[in-house]
User: What shape does this take?
Amino acid sequence: MSSDPRAYLIFTGTGPILVLSTYDEVTDDRLVAKLRYKGIDKFIAYAVDRAAVASRYPDSYESVSADLRGVEDIRVLDFNGHQIMANFSLHELGEPIKYGD
Assistant: This one.
């Protein structure tokens, strides 16, 4: 388990979500099972710099990070696609991580 949460921008069938996760990989079977439970069977994810996320979501980042301390889980930080896309440039994102058929 990672000590600091990782941030991911995940493009799903219904739009982007910004999440924090303490799983080491966005493709971890346990994380994928949680996404599947929410109806997300395939996605394209990008790792996002934690410092960038913390600076753009200062209050919610601290709150969600605190909620994840000591557990392996995932939390949605933002599900407003317009806000997420306004907060992050596509140039800030790394290589895509594709999951699903």
User: Anything to note?
Assistant: The beta strands are 6-12, 15-21, 43-48, 74-78, 97-99. The chain has a mean pLDDT of 93. The CA atoms of residues 53 and 61 lie 7 Å apart. Helices lie at 29-37, 50-56, 58-68, 81-87.
